[in-house]
Structures are given as C-alpha cells and as structure tokens.
Amino acid sequence: MFSNISKSLLCCTNAIGPNRALAYALTKCPVFLEPPLSQCRNYHEVTGDIVCPNMVRGIDHLRDPRLNKGLAFTLEERQALGIHGLLAAKFKTQEEQLDICRISIDRYEDNLNKYLYLVELQDRNEKLFFRLLSENVEKYLPIVYTPTVGLACQRFGLIYRRPRGLFITINDKGHVFNILKNWPEPDVRAIVFTDGERILGLGDLGAYGMGIPVGKLSLYTALAGIKPHQCLPITLDVGTDNQDLLEDPLYIGLRQRRVRGKEYDEFIDEFMEACVQRYGQNTLLQFEDFALGNAGRLLAKYRNKYCTFNDDIQGTASVAVAGLMAAIRVTKRKLSENIYFFLGAGSAANGIANLTVAAMVAEGLTKEQAQDRVYMFDVDGLLSTRREGGVPEHAKAFGKNIAPEKSFEACIAKIKPSCLIGCSTVGGAFNENVLRQMAQNIERPVIFALSNPTSKAECTAQDAYNFTDGRCIFASGSPFPPVQYDGKEFHTGQGNNSYIFPGIALGVIATATHHIPETMFLTAARTLANYVSESDLALGRIYPSLSEVKEVSLAIAIEVAKMAYDEECACAYPKPVDFKRHIQIRQYNCHYEPQLNKLRIYFIYIFTGLASVYPEPKDLSKHVSSMMYSFHYESSMPVVWDWKPEEKFNVRPVQPVPKNI
C-alpha cells in the first residue's frame, strides 16, 4: 500500500516540508520500496536564461542541453559541480568542439543524416549547436531548413526521437489552455505554429509538419539571437486529407480526415486566446504553412487583434520586394515602371503583389494604378473577370477585364511583363519558350523562381541564364549551384525568408510590440535591399551573402524597433467582444470553485505607438543587442565576492537570562 505513495513522493524532487522528509525516510526503508526505483527528474530543470544555483544539481549540467558544455568544463567547474570523473580527462575549448562537429557532419554524405546529427547536437549541447549554425549559415541553413527540412518532414515518423514543442489536437478543443500550461517554460515570447496542410510545396503533411516550426525557431536564434527558451513550436493537429499518411503505420498524428468549417475556426480562436492568456498580449504568434483557404483569411481576421504575421504571405513578400528594390540598381527602372506577372495566385503571390503595390504607391502611383501593373495566372488561366468562374475572392484586386487566356506562354508574349515571379510549386514551369520570350520583352528581365523545395522551383538558375542570353536578374527560393555562362561564374541570390522573419521577430520582441502592420515588412524590405553591395550585384545576386544574414537581421530589428515607437496607433488592443469573459479570465480567483468576484474594472485603450516597452530606450541599437542570445559558453561556477570588514565595537559579554523571566 505504501509503494505508490513512495513513488509519487520520490518523483517529486521539488517536494517541500513533510513530503521531502518522508521521501528521504522512504529511501532509507527498503520495506516500502519496489527495487529498482530511480528518481524521476522534471523535463528541463532550468527555465529562462537566469539559473538559480540552488535549484540545479551538478549532474544537471551534463544532462540539460542548456547547461552542458561537454569537455569544455574546466577542472575547477568539474570538481565544484561534482562531475569530475564523469567526463574524459581532456579539456577542450568551444572552438575545438566546433571543429570536431564540422568534421563529423562532413563525414555524412546524405543530407538527412546531417540533419539528424544537428538535431541530436541541439538535444545535447544547445550553445554549441547554435554557434555552429550561426557561424556557418551558408553551409548549414539548407540542412536545418529548406530544402532538407522538407525531406525531414516527409519522414518525420521515422526520425522522431523526443518531444520538441507542443502537439495540440482538435480533440483538445476546450482545453487548449491546459495543454499550454504543460509547457515547462513560462517566458515564451514567440510561437510558430502550423496545421500542416501546406508544408513548403509538398502539400498536406499533417502532424509531420512539426519540422517546419522547429526549424523556423532554430533560425530565430541562430540568425537573430532570440533566446531559445523564448521560442515555442506548435503543431495544431486537426487531421490530414493525405491518404498516404492515413495509411502510414509510422504516422504520429490523428488518423482522421481534416476538420474544417466552424469547428476548425472555433479551435483556432481558442488557441489564439489561450496563447495570450498564458504568455501575454505581446506574444508573437507566427502562422506557418497554412493552406490557401485559411492563410489569408486567418491573417485578415487576427492581424489587428494579436501580435501576429504569416511568414508565407508577408515574409515571402518582404524578401521578394527587397529583391525587386535591389534590382533597380541593375535595370535602372523604378518599381512603378515594371509590369509584373505572377505564375500562381495563392497566398504567397498575393502577399508579394500587395507589398509591391504598397512600394509603388510610395513612389507616387495611386493604389489602382499600381494594381493595374500586376497580372496573375493560376490553374484556370489568366486572372480575368471574364473567365468562367471569375476571379477567386482572395485575388479580386488583381483580376483584369481582359479576354481569358489559358496559355501561359501566350500571356507572356501578349502582356510583355518585365518581371516574372513564380509562386506555383510547379517545377520547370518557366521553360525555354517562356524564358526566351522574357528576353525578348525587355533588355534585363527579372525572373524569380520562388517555389520550395528545389524540385518545385519554376526553373533552375542555369536555365534562366542560358535562355535569356545571360541578361536576366535571377533569384530563387531554394539554393542553386553557381551558374557558368560565357566564361563567367555567377552566384545567384536566394530569396530566402530567413533574411526577413528573424529580424522582424527580434525587433518586435525587444520592444514588446503589440501588433505588426504591413509597413513593417516594407521597412524590412528596404533595409535588406540597402544591404546589397555593388560586389553582390557584380556576382549576379540581388541579396547579400547568407554569411551576412546575422548583421542584416540586427539592422532590420533596429529599424523595426524605431518604427514601433514612431508609428502612431490609436488602439493598441481590440476592444473585447465579451467584457465579462475578458475580466473573468484575468481576475485572481481566491475561492476553490470558479466565481466571478464583483469588481468594477475599467479599461483604457489609448496608446500612441506600437511598442509597449517604456520608457523608450535612449539607444535602441544597444537595447536590441542587449536582448540577444550569447552563443558562447559561460562560467558554471557560482559568483562569489568579498564583504568589507566589519567595524570594531566593544561588544558586551552575553549575560545569563534572569530566572524570573
């Protein structure tokens, strides 16, 4: 009868008072125990980035990836922490460990194996992982993110090792807040979440899509220095319509068809509200890889209610517009002098088009004039108001009152665009005829093949140069090898969202911005475009080297922070629809049973800016930098200091206590 009691007590290492004493007594009394019984430890003894020394055991410095330094622990640290002898005798610096990691990764030929090595390194030694990634961005970014992460998602059931992030299912509807409370880290500032319906260009991967939020948040830290404990990846599992996954014995998600309609919307509503209830109104909520039917409408629904953005729409738009801005220095054409033609009319295409329109308006056009310069082509042909079925609701702004046309090549010849942008996920759609026609349309055609992964790109960099006589300005969503043309080598740019979203996130978190207007992404695009050097343009790329992405992210964060204080905002948070519920969930309950105390609470919704950190820091650059994560090891020794000598006093001897007291 004592067995279950003893187990529960021993598994609670944070027991206090009588429970701790009883737990100790039970360990000394084998009568009550079922051997062998080892102590259980909570997942992540360390929370936040401030370690309370009296809460961490010596062995935790080896077991917790946030604290582990491997052979970099000094002799003094090993002896003081009680881990001397648990490590080999050799002492290594972090730099030596980095060299070993590079050698180890290079021994793998398959990129998925390299991905798995990096995942295991992150599970073992967090600082070493992030420093390795941050100092070798060009080499390892394609491993931890696109294109290799796409393959990792497809095989997620096979490579799944340990929990990383939260899986919240439609079956948890009504209890989302309870699930969020299970995450042991209270200081979450950024959440990246997906429902897995449109993972890259691979379609519906359901719960296998967790690899995307995990990879995205790794880049938050590696590229912008956002502290890893502040990041939370989440998969909203509402089922999958992918028949292969429903029949896959390794599938780790709900084995059911996707829930849609009212039940789905209520689930998302509950999730958004639960996130701000748990972590605060300024928590950054990033939508990731939602399908076309949900991405745009959910962004429109929540963008003025929460601190949120959709990277597939707004991040892609920002990096694409940055490329168009940088191309001005080569083409000598203003944005407002181009004709834009999109292959694909989904969320990414509309995001790019809308931000391009905003940039053209900034050059002096009206919104209608700017929209007239943008054309789109989807699975049903040219977006014409005269075609059967008309124009999809989400793309109404770019429908044209012209004759319908289902031939993509014919449209290129008729409309004569100067900028061709692919967001279709149709590999090879920009064929030789299309590219040669672009070369006839204008002297320096701009060609963006932005679909991911590489296999879904509309054309290769080499084909773009070959079929435009080397005159094109090319960018892609996934990396391509250098182009050899006419005896020269060109290094084309990768229009990777990684240039944008880490910097945006850092600026938002550093200023506790409460929501993210579209103009922030235009600001980020200008900042990125200004970072492109003449030497970059000479090499054929309209983006800076990925090795500079950390500097770019910091520059974007600083500009976003400035904007957060300069941008005027009449209403910081939307007025709650249900004031009674709004008050209730924020009140302290001093009773055992739920009860709404009769308190009169007044809300004032008047703010002058987007930022919530007050007073405004005098040096924003210094403030943003101070919020960043350190990739270097820190001492594991407790901080010690001396006290000044006590003053000299004539202290009286201790007198016996009178007996009559």
Automatic annotation (TrEMBL):
<dbReference type="GO" id="GO:0006108">
    <property type="term" value="P:malate metabolic process"/>
</dbReference>
<dbReference type="Pfam" id="PF00390">
    <property type="entry name" value="malic"/>
</dbReference>
<feature type="domain" description="Malic enzyme N-terminal">
    <location>
        <begin position="122"/>
        <end position="303"/>
    </location>
</feature>
<dbReference type="GO" id="GO:0004473">
    <property type="term" value="F:malate dehydrogenase (decarboxylating) (NADP+) activity"/>
</dbReference>
<feature type="domain" description="Malic enzyme NAD-binding">
    <location>
        <begin position="313"/>
        <end position="565"/>
    </location>
</feature>
<keyword id="KW-0479">Metal-binding</keyword>
<dbReference type="InterPro" id="IPR001891">
    <property type="entry name" value="Malic_OxRdtase"/>
</dbReference>
<dbReference type="GO" id="GO:0005739">
    <property type="term" value="C:mitochondrion"/>
</dbReference>
<dbReference type="GO" id="GO:0051287">
    <property type="term" value="F:NAD binding"/>
</dbReference>
<feature type="binding site">
    <location>
        <position position="452"/>
    </location>
    <ligand>
        <name>(S)-malate</name>
    </ligand>
</feature>
<feature type="active site" description="Proton donor">
    <location>
        <position position="145"/>
    </location>
</feature>
<feature type="binding site">
    <location>
        <position position="289"/>
    </location>
    <ligand>
        <name>a divalent metal cation</name>
    </ligand>
</feature>
<feature type="binding site">
    <location>
        <position position="496"/>
    </location>
    <ligand>
        <name>(S)-malate</name>
    </ligand>
</feature>
<dbReference type="InterPro" id="IPR037062">
    <property type="entry name" value="Malic_N_dom_sf"/>
</dbReference>
<dbReference type="InterPro" id="IPR036291">
    <property type="entry name" value="NAD(P)-bd_dom_sf"/>
</dbReference>
<feature type="active site" description="Proton acceptor">
    <location>
        <position position="216"/>
    </location>
</feature>
<comment type="similarity">
    <text>Belongs to the malic enzymes family.</text>
</comment>
<dbReference type="InterPro" id="IPR015884">
    <property type="entry name" value="Malic_enzyme_CS"/>
</dbReference>
<dbReference type="InterPro" id="IPR012302">
    <property type="entry name" value="Malic_NAD-bd"/>
</dbReference>
<feature type="binding site">
    <location>
        <position position="198"/>
    </location>
    <ligand>
        <name>(S)-malate</name>
    </ligand>
</feature>
<keyword id="KW-0560">Oxidoreductase</keyword>
<feature type="binding site">
    <location>
        <position position="288"/>
    </location>
    <ligand>
        <name>a divalent metal cation</name>
    </ligand>
</feature>
<dbReference type="Pfam" id="PF03949">
    <property type="entry name" value="Malic_M"/>
</dbReference>
<feature type="binding site">
    <location>
        <position position="312"/>
    </location>
    <ligand>
        <name>a divalent metal cation</name>
    </ligand>
</feature>
<dbReference type="GO" id="GO:0046872">
    <property type="term" value="F:metal ion binding"/>
</dbReference>
<dbReference type="InterPro" id="IPR046346">
    <property type="entry name" value="Aminoacid_DH-like_N_sf"/>
</dbReference>
<protein>
    <recommendedName>
        <fullName>Malic enzyme</fullName>
    </recommendedName>
</protein>
<dbReference type="InterPro" id="IPR012301">
    <property type="entry name" value="Malic_N_dom"/>
</dbReference>
